[in-house]
User: Fold CASP-like protein from Vanilla planifolia.
Amino acid sequence: MAKTPRACILVLRLLSMAAAVSAAVVMATSHQTTSFFNIAIKAEFYHSPSFTFFLAANAVAGVYSLFPLLAPRAGLGSRWVVVLDVVVAMLLTAAVAAAGAISEVGKKGNEHAGWLPICGQVSKYCHHVMGALICGFVGLLCHTTVVLHTISTELDPLLP
Amino acid sequence: MAKTPRACILVLRLLSMAAAVSAAVVMATSHQTTSFFNIAIKAEFYHSPSFTFFLAANAVAGVYSLFPLLAPRAGLGSRWVVVLDVVVAMLLTAAVAAAGAISEVGKKGNEHAGWLPICGQVSKYCHHVMGALICGFVGLLCHTTVVLHTISTELDPLLP
Assistant:
């Protein structure tokens, strides 16, 4: 691999790590207490299993990001980096998709199911969750770029 | 690659295609009309964007599955198969995660958000969606096994 792409990959890996850690932190700090017709409403990220999963997946991805930077660059170590990179990409995809699906219901509701939107009542909480989702999406994008670049350039061109 | 693993990969690819097509068909046929206290309730998969996305993603994966079976086995064609395999794996992951997150709310509700479970009223619909999710998950599992096996065995062991 040329020197410039390797530097780009390193920058993308660091960006991905920063975005994943930020996503986990922003989601962990997402909470709001408000009142609606004198009824106290408390919104916390752990009220939704999808948001808890989002936090856990991004925390795992953040910690994992150290592994490719420390793993040996040739032989089996390098293979494991690519395999684990794909697994982490799928984990981040699942996290963003699940949290995104629930956020969409939180924002727009679902009239057919009788689920009302909640973002009118807990807008600060919704903005916080949206921030976490954006960080998670940026991290996923950087990580996916690294994975696809690695596979497309380093796959054995003579494979059967 | 030895003869037996190649046959296994072919079987897994065919299984993955069958599961993805089944998931799309089962989701597309998920609907139920019932009444609750004389109020007509109609449940259709397209009432939820996540279920529509699930159907589309599995249909795309089903059609794509033909590509690796027809693509040339050496050189650039083979590289593209691996890159697209990873993209499709992420697409299927997103579909299963998003549809799974909404199904979980449909089944258990979310008392904090005031979203009531709907599966008590439209149980046939919920079972249908669950069937689609199981098919989608099996397809994702088969496809992921193929992707990880290909990467772990066919990545250039001398890559820098």
